[in-house]
Amino acid sequence: MQPADRNHRPCPICRRFPDHAEVYLEERIDTSALNSYSFASRKEPERLCFQMVRCPTCDLVYVDSPPSQGELAKAYHSADYDSSEEANDAASSYADAFAKVLGRLAHDSALEIGTGTGVFLEKLSAIGFRHVEGIEPSTAAIAAAPEHRRPWIREGIFVEGDYAPESFDMICCFMTLEHVRDPLEVVESAIRLLRPGGAFLSVTHDYRHPVNRMLGKRSPIVDIEHMQLFSRDSIRALFAQAGYVDIEANAFTNTYALSYWHRLMPLPAGLKRPMGRVLEGLRLNGVKLSINVGNTAAAGFKPKAHA
Ligand SMILES: [Zn+2]
């Protein structure tokens, strides 16, 4: 990316330039290592990043000189996609994490922003949502979706004007709020598209979780694709800023195959490859393991209309 494509931005939640923003992560860009996989989700982490600073008011860590929205959109459009089994495991974890919230909602219609192959839409349909739809910028992800899910998925970037106001009971966005240039705009758009009493759900990494703090710069959350990193406090701050009430933000466990945990592990290749062979040899690759990896499941409700 050329320097001309980058500009300075304020905190994406409070919209202020913090007086005393501390540098949270120093920039590490190696253009020769950038490839189309850099922008695919759940890929082998490369741990390159733009400089990130922390807003002391919102507790949000964010890239203060990000590439332009156009550059990001282009990168995602052409991103490769390689994670169908993991996507399925993730969707099951999310359905479990949000079971209580989903139970409180009317089941008329739901929208997923960044739906991938639409695997979570499948879960929503199974629990009784009558109308489900998703928006997804990656052509490769949609091409990988099973035939019966394709009619649910629209290719593109989420734009509020494409939907009728107050037309959804639930809108969700998983592992995506880190990637967008303006997460507040997304949650504000969502609250206008929700019916009163409807809910917005998100899953985000928690940079304050002990796992991520322990790994530091080797954590999978340190990645060039992340424009901001949330803590439980900052995801609450984002929802509150947009007008949501009854906000919850909780840690939960992700269930994935051992082979995937192995791929995420921040180990040198010299150790990682033999470990992979051991897992394969013991036929443990397909074994599922639930771990709290420092992700936050957050939910906020649109206030019910006044009587
Ligand atoms: Zn702020």
UniProtKB/TrEMBL annotation:
Keywords: Methyltransferase, Transferase. The keyword Methyltransferase applies. GO terms for molecular function: methyltransferase activity. One of its GO terms (biological process) is methylation. This is Class I SAM-dependent methyltransferase. InterPro entries: SAM-dependent_MTases_sf. CDD domains: AdoMet_MTases. Pfam families: Methyltransf_23.
